[in-house]
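#onboarding

Welcome to the new folks! Below is a worked example of what a typical request in this channel looks like: someone posts a single protein sequence, and someone else replies with the predicted structure as tokens. Don't worry about understanding the tokens yet, we'll cover that in week two.

Example request:
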Amino acid sequence: MIWPLIDVDRGSRPPAVVTWVLIVAMTAVFAAAAVAQGGVFLDHPVLERWGALEPGRVADGEWWRLLASGLLHKDVVHLGTNLLAIALFAPLLERALGSRQLFLIWLVTTLCGSASGLPLYDGLQVGSSAFAYGLLGAGLAVVGMRLAAPPPTLAARLGLVSLLAMGSLREPDAMYGEWRVSHAAHIAGMLAGLVLGLVAGAMPRARVRRGQIVAALIATLACAGVLLTPRRTDFQSELRRYGAVEADVRSRLAGAFSKYDEEQDAHRLAARIENEMLAWNDERERLALVMGLRARDRASLDELVRYMTAWGGSWLRAVAALRGEDPSVIKRAFDGVEEAWRLRPAWLEGEDSPRSSR
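Example response:
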């Protein structure tokens, strides 16, 4: 029976309990994280602390992130667009199929979306878009199986959600700042929702629950192989890349000092140092965003990034001192470079301090 999809008497419809519980949960999680951040644009540490999906942490046993990440969003726009899609269509599906079935759709689409992103993306993953796409897939399946001609209101909502879906899929490798759109999660969520919707649409209402449970088990097993092998970042390869950058920067700094011995021009030396440190700062920023590490490797990488920040900052202070041409200030600045060098992690291959004392 399909009355919940076409009945215009709202008073006769059962309440969409699960829909609004999910909407309230997503809003509450974002609000709490925003309070912790002090703003509505959440940065990586806050997202990671509040449950963002990160391959290395999942591999270390934090499986709860597979579902928690589906309740978390990176900013208010991200939250708003997903909640719009959910609010437009989830109540209709919940009234058509039942609250338990909608909860099952959320559970399976979120798990499948998380599983599909683990082997493909190194960074943090957050958002309920796998569920939103799952709603679209399930809705299209149910309508196709049960209604030859959907009523205008339902057709309009399906069309709007479809436009939102196509909008986020318009670029194969869309990037928004540091964020990449996880199309794998979108597609996996839609396919999982489509399977569950087809089962629900093909069965009488009384038999939907059993059929959806079977379909959910099949979809979950299909994701299990991916979940068992989340992508790891090779820490040693990251160290080798860092080592190459460090060697290049040290070589270029040595060259800058050699030219200074010939020219005795502090301003030119400052300009050369400033230019050579650009690669150092770029590498520091890249390493700060590396994900997919084991817990012990993450601690080591954080130590390395702290050292890079200190050493890079000491060189910038030396540049300012050189431009000021005060010998005592220059001496103190280069003493600071030496002091920052001593923060270099002991587990890195041994290196002598670069020529920096002037």
